[in-house]
Amino acid sequence: MRKLIILALIGLAAQLVDGSLGMAYGVTSSTLLLTVGLAPAAVSATVHLAEIGTTLASGASHWKFGNIDWRIVGFMAVPGGVAAFFGANVLTASGDAAAPIMSVILLGLGVYVVWRFLRLPDRRPSFTGKVPGFLLVPLAGVAGFMDAIGGGGWGPVGTPTLLASGKIHPRKVIGSIDASEFVVSVGASVGFLLALGHQGINLPFVLALLVGGVIAAPIAAYLVRWLAPRILAVGAGGLIILTNTRTLLRTDAAGEVVPAGVGPAILLIVALAWAAGIVWVIRKEVAGRRAERSAAGAAARDAVGSDVER
């Protein structure tokens, strides 16, 4: 029972991060399940079964708070689900072999997202334009496939890529990715059930993760609506940098790539830099809001002065 309660709390915490930053539910949950000795395919199957419920609750919550761009969902959901289905059927050691390559790409995207939003001026950013559909469909295919073979990848691939475009409001990116992930989770789960049956899938684990995630979903969707775009973007980008740095500091079988003790030190430096970046953008956001209030006050005083002169 204690293990199930811990899993529910992990599901709650993972969904808070996933629902507010657009990623990490699968990565966090998969990491935990691997530590208790489940096989990679069973881990991914367990997580995706739980995500059917959590993503449904998350999508409904994001819809309620107006965080979804349905055009993005329309282009990405079905291709992502189909790719996840096939990914579930080909989950082998090749998934681990591809992890370092994907981590390098995602690390680069994370650095770009953080750099882009750190260098914005004090005024709050605006988001205009659309990401073409012919780019959204292959993005969904790659993200869905990686999600199935890695136990988590839809958000880590999709969220920073869309954020890097600079055309879509971060809360719309996060809400749309979370909403379309329901179809991806269904596709992956069907693939795993056909390939594995019920073998290796621990239903109590699924339910524990599901309960925690469903409780957290509306809270996370509310946080996305409240948080400023640059804070969301730097938070998501920093999480991508941290998780993929961790992946690159490990091998697929032999443990640490770098000498013992160096890896944790590197991760600590990355985490501290991430925290400093969030503090920086919070200060810029406060400065931007002060400037807007000052400009609005000056405009109001000028309007009053003009009326008096008349």
TrEMBL record:
Transmembrane segments: 29-50, 70-91, 97-118, 203-224, 231-249, 261-282
Subcellular location: Cell membrane; Membrane
GO CC list: plasma membrane
Pfam families: TauE
Topology with respect to the bilayer: Multi-pass membrane protein
Keywords: Cell membrane, Membrane, Transmembrane, Transmembrane helix
InterPro entries (UniProt xref): TM_pro_TauE-like, TSUP/Inactive_protease-like
Family, per entry: Belongs to the 4-toluene sulfonate uptake permease (TSUP) (TC 2.A.102) family.
PANTHER family: MEMBRANE TRANSPORTER PROTEIN MJ0441-RELATED, MEMBRANE TRANSPORTER PROTEIN YTNM-RELATED
Protein name: Probable membrane transporter protein
Organism: Rothia santali
